[in-house]
Specification:
The complex is a heterodimer. By secondary structure, chain A is an alpha+beta fold. Chain A contains 7 helices and 17 strands. Chain A folds into 2 domains: 151 residues, Alpha-Beta Plaits (2-Layer Sandwich); 139 residues, Alpha-Beta Plaits (2-Layer Sandwich). In chain A, a hairpin with a 2-residue loop joins strand 8 and strand 9. Chain B has a domain of 146 residues. In chain B, strands 5-1-6-8-9-10-11-12-13-14-17-16-15 form a 13-stranded mixed sheet. In chain B, strands 4-3-2-7 form a 4-stranded mixed sheet, with no helix packed on it. The chains are: A alpha+beta, B mainly beta.
Chain lengths: 298, 274
């Protein structure tokens, strides 16, 4: 199968179950909402070492936020409720509450919930006020900029992490141009994020390592510098491989995001250095969700 | 299915306790069985169809027609569905209500929403004293839910309320929000003497400056209250009737009090329309 002259490998991306929450950050201006959102998604590229994967989902108009101010929707993924519980409270406390004029609300309505204001309210040192409005409980924490308002909990849902595809290019410059376009397209799909910096992974990993203390290590089969040294998946003309990893709320949204992303990358074609599209397939060691490239591109 | 309609045959001479007329109590009952229900009229127990004509089938939507202020305990403990009272309602409207919607087209008596823990009461006319308040001996007044009064309310609105929201579009009497433990009261017209007297926590929002404010409230100055922005946006999103809150801004003069209790309550006097 070829799209615009780019070879699509007959393989699949392998993804795994996660837990996800969506939070809404509002502020006096969109600029300050972005500052908080960027702080919360900092060092949240992979669960391997960051504990969570998080990214901005989209901008929200004032009419879409609970308090009528401009906002940002951020999605946070973790391997377990325990991890999510720990990181959401910590990150909202340190990244959102500390950002001037912000407020933080749940962006998901579900039975399962993780604490936000429930933990953070104690910062109010006894001056915090609870308010139930529209069947939702909010905490008003008096802070130096005025009041920090945070919803008691954020809804949690089952999700999928690790949907991915690899862009095999002549050079890193070629690959990055295609990946930037792909990420732009993926961002149009609701319910998905690309948590790595800029949405692109420069150091894709395989499961396991020769070192017992490492759970993930470099994917040598796709490292151009090791072509002559290991059993490589790369042909002579490929000089750089970049990966786009997608976390999403369900299979449909990841399917759609991968489809749009791959098509955008392929639109560059071999003339602009894009040679092949493949996917991270770890032989069933990673997870139960399989996204077959050729199937989703039909 | 058509709504279950109860029409009063004659104006009652004594108080008429309509406690049994709730959606959960009438669910699954035949019309004949409903007509044979016993209700308390004055000091006697009488068959329902001696006082009401009954028609319709849908017990989740109850309409009481030609109602007067003699009908007490309407919507008592209701947990679902809707009750519409066409006319006035007497005391203890929605007492112990847990969920559902209770609407009075006319006026309501005292103690509306007493011991309410959920749902919504709409009063299109005026309400008398002790809206959402606790009875003598109760620890608390209402503990959740929304009471929306389009007209005026009497004295001691929300006395000892624990949680929930009371909105009064008209005027409120004296001691509005007295001794409240928490919750929110909004008065969009004038308020009587000493609002918030003895309040522990909670919020009283006044669109107009009160003429008498207790000396035990201390000014925190004019502030932009982020909470007001959230509250008004959320209320306006509930339905068309409450969309009027879109026109209110977050600027308010904040008074903390009652300092004679623990001073953690607040009186917010709105400064500007948007």
């Amino acid at each position: 199968m070829k799209i615009n002259g780019v070879q699509i490998d007959d393989t699949f991306a392998e993804a795994f179950p996660m837990k996800a929450t969506r939070i809404i950050i509002t502020a006096m201006t969109l600029k300050w909402a972005y500052r908080a959102a960027n702080a919360i998604r900092g060092f949240a590229s992979s669960v391997i070492a960051c504990g969570i994967e998080a990214d901005i989902e989209r901008e929200l108009k004032p009419s879409e936020t609970p308090d009528g101010r401009p906002g940002i929707s951020v999605m946070i993924f973790a391997m377990s409720m325990k991890d999510l519980e720990k990181h959401v409270a910590t990150r909202v406390g340190q990244s959102v509450m500390t950002t001037a004029t912000t407020a933080c609300y749940s962006g998901l309505d579900s039975e399962q919930k993780v604490s936000m204001g429930k933990s953070l309210r104690f910062f109010g040192d006894g001056f915090q006020i609870s308010k139930v409005v529209n069947k939702r409980r909010f905490w008003r924490i008096p802070v130096m900029h005025g009041e920090f308002i945070v919803e008691e909990t954020a809804g949690v849902t089952k999700a999928i992490g690790g949907g991915n595809f690899l862009v095999l290019a002549k050079t890193a410059r070629h690959g990055l141009a295609a990946c930037e376009k792909a990420v732009e397209e993926i961002q149009k799909v609701p319910g998905v994020i690309t948590a790595f910096p800029g949405g692109v992974v420069g150091s894709g990993s395989k499961v396991g390592s020769k070192y017992k203390f490492l759970t993930a290590s470099t994917n040598e089969a796709y490292c151009p510098t090791l072509k002559g040294q290991v059993k490589s998946e790369l042909s002579d003309e490929i000089g750089s491989v970049l990966e786009i990893v997608i976390d999403g709320l369900d299979e449909e949204s990841i399917n759609e995001a991968m489809r749009l992303g791959i098509k955008a990358a392929c639109s560059f074609g071999p003339a602009k250095g894009i040679c092949r599209i493949s996917a991270g397939n770890y032989g069933g060691n990673l997870g139960p969700h399989l996204f077959h490239l050729r199937k989703l591109l039909k | 299915m058509s709504a279950l309609v109860f029409t009063l045959k004659n104006q009652p001479e004594f108080t008429l306790d309509v406690t049994p007329l709730t959606p959960e109590n009438l669910e699954g009952k035949t019309l004949a069985k409903i007509k044979n229900l016993k209700i308390i009229y004055g000091n006697k127990s009488v068959k329902l169809d001696t006082l009401f004509t009954v028609k319709g089938t849908d017990s989740s939507q109850i309409i009481i027609e030609k109602s007067t202020d003699k009908l007490i305990n309407a919507g008592h403990g209701m947990t679902k569905g809707s009750i519409t009272i066409e006319g006035d309602a007497g005391d203890f409207l929605g007492q112990g209500m847990k969920n559902g919607t209770l609407t009075v087209i006319g006026n309501a008596g005292s103690w509306a929403g007493n011991a309410m823990s959920g749902g919504r009461i709409n009063i299109n006319g005026n309400a008398r004293d002790y809206v959402g308040a606790g009875l003598p001996g109760d620890s608390f007044g209402m503990s959740n839910g929304l009471i929306n009064i389009k007209g005026n309310a009497g004295d001691r609105v929300g006395d000892r309320m624990r949680r929930g929201i009371i909105i009064i579009h008209g005027k409120s009497g004296n001691y509005c929000g007295s001794r409240i433990h928490a919750g929110t009261i909004i008065v969009l017209d004038k308020v009587g003497k000493l609002p918030g007297e003895g309040m522990r926590r909670g919020t009283i929002i006044l669109a107009k400056k009160p003429t008498h404010l207790s000396a035990t409230f201390k000014s925190c100055g004019n502030l932009k209250m982020q909470f007001l922005r959230l509250l008004f946006t959320q209320l306006a999103s509930i339905d068309e009737e409450l969309s009027l809150f879109n026109k209110y801004g977050p600027e308010a003069h904040r008074f903390s009090g009652d300092l004679a209790r623990n001073g953690k309550g607040e009186l917010l006097i709105l400064q500007h329309y948007k």
